[in-house]
Amino acid sequence: MNFGKDIKGYMRLHKIQGHSYYFQGPTNVGIVKYKNSMALLIDAGLDSTSSRLLAQAVEEEGLKPKYVVITHAHPDHYGAVKWLKEQYTGLLRYSHPGEAVWMANPRIESESFYGARPLRELENRFLKGPAIEMDFLIEKGKLELGEKNYEILALPGHTYNQIGVLTSDSVLFVGDSLFSEEIMEKYSFPFLLDIELQLQTIEKLAQVKADYVVLSHAQKVYTSITDLCAKNKARIDEYIEEILEWCYQPCTREDITEKVLTKNQTEADIPHYYRTHATVGAFLSYLSNRNQLEKAVISGKCYFYRE
After folding, report:
1. CB distance 180 to 228 below 8 Å
2. Is 5 helix (H, G, I), strand (E, B) or coil?
3. What's the Cα-to-Cα distance from 116 to each of 112, 124, 165, 257, 283, rounded to whole Å?
4. Residues in contact with 14: Cβ distance below 8 Å, sequence separation at least 6, in sequence order
5. Are the CB atoms for 193 and 230 separated by under 8 Å?
6. Contact in structure between 189 and 276 (CB atoms under 8 Å)
7. Largest Cα–Cα distance in the chain?
8. Phi first, then psi: what are they for 78, rounded to 5°?
9. Residue boundaries of the structural domains of the chain
10. Among 121, 233, 248, 253, who pairs with 270 as Cys (CB 3.0-4.6 Å)?
């Protein structure tokens, strides 16, 4: 199922199966229709601009948002909730408790990239969303909302407590737990927080049974993600091997960040540099904690190396 890139694709709901739909945009939003003309949203988008388009499309179907489940606490997934709550005061907001902390305290995101009070370039709307509170906290397992039942999956790696939502129509919304082919082409080194957890999530998703799978950033709905899981794992394996190769000579985290950006011929701005720097840190922690890399502080620099 491929709806293409035309602007009309950003202005309406696309039916997937049963009562499960999605709104195609920079961040895809899942929608589940209810009999009483209410709707569940899975994620919400970045800001009031995207939420206005979403609200227009939902209302053109005769629906109003009643529930929103946030897969993880990155602003392009939850930033629009503020505007939606102002328009639909009865909207009920759900997320994992670990993600709710970040959304209630959005400065944590930019601070985590920088490790201290962040540079102002790290406080843009893509890295620091509005502060919002959740109405209900949810974890993996069964979730009943209204007359419908859902399965909440734990999908950590991109964040520690990211979740996926499986509808009763056998449609699975996976947030950013997998990267599409076009995202991996555009961003060769997508952001990951924990490599070990990400590999476990990829393995889990490869075994999940669902008729359709919706990624947050993809131009199509997948009927099978087996190959995509393999491609995501292969990309991680590729960087593991390259980092191990680079570390035959002692390298700092900054050295590895430079090598990644140079390898991908990336002209990085400040946010891109620190997102890459953070993901490099995730790889170095993974390899060091598995005793594949040694580390030592020499002359004021922390080096990683292979014996």
Report:
1. yes
2. coil
3. 7, 16, 34, 19, 21
4. 1, 3, 21, 22, 23, 24, 221
5. no
6. yes
7. 67
8. -120, -10
9. 7-236, 246-305
10. 121
244-274, pLDDT tens digit by residue? 999 999 999 999 999 999 988 878 999 999 9
C-alpha closest to that of 257 among 189, 305, 211, 193:
189
CA dist., res. 304 & res. 297, Å (int): 9
Task: Give me 180's structure tokens.
Answer: 């599409």
Quick one: pLDDT at residue 6?
Answer: 41
Length of the chain: 307
For residues 26 and 219, is the Cβ–Cβ distance under 8 A? no
Are both 7-236 and 246-305 of the same fold?
no
Tokens 């999956």 -> residue: 153
Contact by Cβ (8 Å): 109, 139: no
Report domain 246-305's class: mainly alpha
145-167: string of b/e by CB count within 10 Å (b at 16+)? beebebbbbbbbbbbbbbbbbbb
Average pLDDT taken over every residue of the chain: 94
Question: Which is it for strands 171-173 and 212-214: parallel, antiparallel or unpaired?
Answer: parallel
Is the CATH number of domain 7-236 3.40.50.1370? no
Predicted local distance difference test score (pLDDT) of residue 4: 38
Strand ranges (DSSP E) for the chain?
A: 13-17, 20-23, 29-33, 38-42, 64-69, 92-95, 136-137, 141-145, 148-154, 163-166, 171-173, 212-214, 294-298, 301-305
Percentage of residues in the chain with pLDDT exceeding 70? 96
Distance CA 222, CA 247 (A): 37
Band of residue 10 on the pLDDT scale cut at 50, 70, 90: low
Neighbours of 249 (CB within 10 A): 10
